[in-house]
Automatic annotation (TrEMBL):
E.C. numbers: 3.2.-.-
Species classification: Bacteria, Bacillati, Actinomycetota, Actinomycetes, Propionibacteriales
MF-aspect GO terms: hydrolase activity, acting on glycosyl bonds
Source species of the chain: Nocardioides marmoribigeumensis
Domain Inosine/uridine-preferring nucleoside hydrolase: 4-308
Keywords: Glycosidase, Hydrolase
Pfam families: IU_nuc_hydro (PF01156)
Name assigned to this protein: Pyrimidine-specific ribonucleoside hydrolase
Highest rank taxon of the organism: Bacteria
InterPro entries: Inosine/uridine_hydrolase_dom, IUNH, Ribo_hydro-like
Length: 312
């Protein structure tokens, strides 16, 4: 069993990831921490509590609220894709569970220190909470076995031409995490964008006699309005849930280990993850500017059908 902590900005696809993580027999979720990202921190917490109720997570599973703003820049939400409430405007019942009185950083610290073995952090959101944890409590670093991070891209971006939303929202935080020495698996847009539910998958979910599956179907069916054309468009990606799949079924992906850095400079490239896929990487002048680049396992290819089946 993998013992994990999820860091989320729920978010339609964070909701799908929570559902899968709570229900997957090979995973034990020890805590969930929330960060501002797709929507406001308050809304992220409310959405997370509601989704955990729906999926029947243990009532004592701790959920904590964390950072409200990125380390340097003001927050910028993604309501365009996720709807005004972050959950595709789906209304779930008021939560029965409550948020912890602890800050997310403190909950992370306590869970990591209390665990009998190092935990895996699955980060599905901007990395502000995890960066603050690593800076405030560097002693917990060795208690993190691995970080599976939805973030970045070795090709195009989504928030900008080159930057993926979670890294773009808090590039400094992503930099802190990538250079921390904790092993990182990057689940970026190269695979994230390819796991797309088709009509059949959505119909199967919507017709299910399981309320969680039906909600997953509604989340996947939610359409967003393209700001360029005003058209309603399907999104349909299982998104962050794919990062959970990458943890339980890595054989469905192809990973390669490459040096990775985040572009922190102001300008058009800010927030881009530079994945240096050159053969002789690591020996040139550019690398010399910041010392050796951290080596990261980057998911570059995926069997989308198999991932969808596992998700279903
Ligand atoms: C990431 O950004 C958010 O909008 C999604 O929840 C996902 O974590 C994709 O770039
Ligand atoms: Ca997310």
């Amino acid at each position: 069993k993998h013992h994990i902590i999820l860091d989320v900005d729920t978010g339609k696809d964070d909701a799908l990831a929570l559902m899968l993580a709570v229900r997957h027999p090979d995973l034990e979720v020890r805590a969930v921490t929330c960060v501002e990202g797709n929507t406001s921190l308050e809304q992220v917490v409310a959405n997370t509590l509601r989704v955990l109720d729906l999926v029947g997570a243990p009532s004592d599973l701790p959920v904590a609220a964390g950072a409200r703003t990125p380390l340097v820049e003001p927050p910028r939400d993604a309501s365009m894709f996720h709807g005004a409430n972050g959950l595709g405007d789906l209304t779930l019942p008021e939560p029965t569970r409550t948020v912890s009185e602890l800050h997310a950083v403190e909950l992370l610290r306590r869970e990591l220190l209390a665990a009998e073995e190092p935990l895996t952090l699955v980060t599905l959101a901007p990395l502000t909470n995890v960066a603050l944890l690593l800076r405030m409590h560097p002693e917990v670093r060795d208690r993190i076995g691995r970080i599976v991070m939805m973030g970045g891209s070795a090709s195009r971006g989504n928030a900008t031409a080159v930057a993926e939303f979670n890294v773009w929202h808090d590039p400094e935080a992503a930099h802190v995490v990538l250079t921390s020495g904790v092993p990182v698996t990057l689940y970026g847009l190269d695979v994230f964008d390819r796991v797309v539910a088709d009509d059949d998958v959505i119909a199967r979910l919507r017709a299910s006699d399981d309320a969680v599956a039906r909600t997953a179907g509604e989340l996947l069916a939610h359409e967003f309005v393209d700001p360029r054309t005003g058209e309603r468009k399907p999104y349909r990606k299982i998104g962050d849930a794919g990062a959970v799949v990458a943890l339980v079924a890595p054989e469905l992906f192809a990973f390669e280990t490459w040096p990775v850095q985040v572009d922190l400079a102001p300008g058009l490239g800010r927030g881009q993850t530079l994945v240096d896929r050159r053969d002789a990487a690591g020996e040139d002048l550019v690398h010399g500017l910041r010392g050796p680049w951290p080596l990261v396992d980057v998911a570059l290819d995926v069997d989308p059908r198999a991932v969808l089946e596992l998700f279903l």
